[in-house]
Fold this sequence. Notes:
Elements lengths: L11 H17 L2 H5 L2 E9 L2 E4 L1 H14 L1 E13 L2 E11 L5 E12 L5 E13 L11
Parallel strand pairs: 1-6
Antiparallel strand pairs: 1-2, 3-4, 4-5, 5-6
Amino acid sequence: MESRPPLPPFTLETATKKVQAAEDAWNTRDPVRVSLAYTPDTEWRNRADFVNGREQVVEFLTRKWEREHDYRLRKTLWAFMDNRIAVRFEYEWHDAAGQWFRSHGNENWEFAENGLMQRRFASINDQPIDESERKFRWER
């Protein structure tokens, strides 16, 4: 059986590591790599999209990062208990026309015993910003 430490139940230290691992993976913008952190039958709600299973995760993330250019993400642990973690996040990106956005949101995660995420629920709001207002400017 696949395993993705740290495993639940989470402590402050292991929940923080899990959040950092997710941030690092998502910043690669590699849909296949990101999908491997989820159970094969994972269930997502991302805004108004419902995604089921790794194959749909890869398809969803491929579409996402085709639209969201120069994506840079920060995640922060908000709360945790047993096999669940709540996260706050912000990410910046621009569209094909060059308009920059900062997207803010919250995610609720539920993990299987093997440390793979089985459920992900994300609520996100986009705020148009000027390029000069960007906060996340690190190199890729």
